[in-house]
Amino acid sequence: MVTARQEPNTTDVTAAVETLRKALTAAGIVLPSLGADVASPSLNLITLGRVRADVALRLAEVIQRGCA
């Protein structure tokens, strides 16, 4: 959701996708549908896509370990 108080998003969505893809690959995780959301380019959204339950659990593991 966009609010009046948010700053304009200047993040390079392509660079963000590639950075995330590299980090996920290093963790042994592949999100096949990972990419820029072309439907709303002004929002710089990234589509993570659909994943199997085992991949979601692996992703949760990696995030939890990184937060510990």
Quick overview:
The protein is mainly α. Helices cover 43% and strands 6% of the residues.
Question: How would you explain this protein's 3D organization?
Answer:
- With 68 residues, the chain is mainly alpha-helical.
- Helix content is 43%, strand content 6%.
- The protein has two helices and two strands, in the order H-E-E-H.
- The protein has a two-stranded antiparallel sheet with strand order 1-2.
- The longest helix has 15 residues.
- The mean pLDDT is 87.
Which strands sit side by side, in order, in the main sheet? 1-2
What structural class results from the helix and strand content?
Answer: mainly alpha
Please give the share of residues in helix. 40-55%
Number of strands: 2
Number of helices: 2
Distance between the termini: 29 Å
Approximately how much beta-strand content do the residues carry? Answer: 5-15%
Q: Would you identify the regions where 5 or more consecutive residues have pLDDT less than 50? A: none
The SSE string, one letter per element, is: HEEH
Radius of gyration: 14 Å
The residue-averaged pLDDT reads 87
Q: Main beta sheet, described?
A: 2 strands, antiparallel
From the spread of the alpha carbons, the general shape counts as globular
